[in-house]
Amino acid sequence: MRKVRGTKIVATLGPASDSPEIIDQLCRAGVNVFRLNFSHGDHAGHRNAVLNIRKAEQKIKHPIAIMLDLQGPKLRVGTFKKGYVPLQVGQTFQLDSDPTPGDETRVYFGHPQIFPSLVPGANILINDGKVFLCVTESYPDHTVCVVQSGTEISDRKGVNLPNVGLDISSMTPKDDEDLAFGLELGIDWVAISFVQTVNDILRARAKVPSWVRLVAKIEKPLALQNLEPIIDASDGIMVARGDLGVEVPLEQVPGFQKRIVKECQTRGKPVIVATQMLDSMIVASTPTRAEVSDVASAVYDGADAVMLSAESASGKYPVQAVQMMDRIIRQVESDPEYTRSLRANLPFDASFCTPITSSVRDIVERSEVPVIVTVSLTGKTALRISRERPNAAIVTLAMEDHAARALCLVWGVYSYCVPFQNFSSLEEWIQVFKKLVLKENLAAEKDQILVVAGYPFGIEAHTNFASLLTL
User: Fold this and answer.
1) Which position among 76, 258, 262, 343 bears the catalytic label?
2) Which end of the chain is more exposed for a tag (fewer CB within 10 A), N or C?
3) Which is catalytic among the residues 5, 35, 220, 361?
4) Catalytic site residue 7?
């Protein structure tokens, strides 16, 4: 029988991987969700990538999800007369509203609404923290700083403002255009950058149809302070460790990662661990031992998905990186300690679980059931079952393609699109369940499978039906 992975793989497409041939290889290597990073590339390139993904999806005859990752507001300094300036620790340096090229004393910072928030004592990090400034004076149109560390600043480097609440929307006009374009292409998930509060998610929610799922990227300290309401308002969470590791001390990132994963698992929301997971595979055909341990730790913690960024977008070995991630996940999931650690501290949540879904794990273990079948319009039953982390494949029959694709990000769930209107009786449905499980080689004849759903099938209802069927 085919052994499916519980933990999913998200792969970013880019110049190294957006051809039809490589996308097809990535699908067969184990990618469940493709990420399109709209911080790079153009609309024409992203359109071709979507078309190539959908062609590959038809070949493998299994849903593949597409995630549009919005750029969000990128804070950057302006340019310099010579392209860069040297810095000395202890010198004074100014960010201001003057768009002329900068020099050794100042540089343009085109975000005037932020200056009032840069009070004395605030920290400013430039170029991923390589330059560290501390604010000494604040004015409506400029701020005066002292250089704490760093040797130079060059043109258009990014700016991070840790622990500074910014009066700025998480979506820019560019994001609005990119989102409209992505919706036209039929994307399934949207990742929202620069999330600070739940209002950032609510504003984005108002701009998408109900079938599009939203992922909140946790990359700001203020988002950590508002974590629970952000999770509740989102359909999924991404632990964006790159930007988060600039905004908070690096040694705190692993603890935050564990906390975010645990909060998501408690609430039954899928969570992605991202950034530099197999970073050395950008240039090398094998990862470091530390990177293997990093991926394994995220899987042991219970992440729904792990993500490749530059490794698959611009690296030399995109397919090998996916294959390596697949092998790491399968090795961890075959470890008895993995199952024990997942379930050790999972609390019961009466607001999310139902008596049936909370008992699924016990039924699976007592009856040695290899497959759980759900029938779902919205995916809620699959999410509830996934939260329990049962030792069985969760096969979900959805009526629409978008519902089936959305579940590609959820731990243990393998979804299929089935036109509900073709079946009118319970007996017909039972035959559908049995044929699908046998066809996909997920169970053998005489095995039992567990069907969990809202009945009657095909209408939105609470999970109220469970039945053991023998193949």
Assistant:
1) 76
2) N
3) 35
4) no
Q: Could you say which architecture CATH assigns to the domain 84-160?
A: Beta Barrel (2.40)
Catalytic residue among 7, 12, 143, 275: 275
Asked about 76 being catalytic, the answer comes back as: yes
35 is catalytic: yes
Residue extent(s) of CATH 3.40.1380.20 domains in the chain = 355-470
In the residue annotation, 92 being an active-site residue is answered as no
Catalytic residue among 157, 217, 361, 380: 217
Comma-separated ranges of CATH 3.20.20.60 domains in the chain: 8-72+170-342
The pLDDT profile of the chain, 471 residues, written as one tens digit per residue, is 678 899 999 999 999 999 999 999 999 999 999 999 999 999 999 999 999 999 999 999 999 999 999 999 989 999 999 999 999 999 999 999 999 999 999 999 998 889 999 999 999 999 989 999 999 999 999 999 999 999 999 999 999 998 888 888 899 999 999 999 999 999 999 999 999 999 999 999 999 999 999 999 999 999 999 999 999 999 999 999 999 999 999 999 999 999 999 999 989 999 999 999 999 999 999 999 999 999 999 999 999 999 999 999 999 999 999 999 999 999 999 999 998 888 776 766 666 667 788 888 889 888 889 999 998 888 888 999 999 899 999 999 988 899 999 999 999 999 998 877 667 778 888 888 899 999 999 999 999 999 988 777 767 767 878 889 999
In whole angstroms, give the CA distance from residue 82 to residue 72: 29
Helices and strands (H and E) in the chain: how many:
16, 21
Architecture of 8-72+170-342 per CATH? Answer: Alpha-Beta Barrel (3.20)
Q: Is the dihedral of CA 283, 285, 289, 293 positive or negative?
A: positive
Question: Residue 359: which residues within 8 A CB-CB, separation 6 or more?
Answer: 466
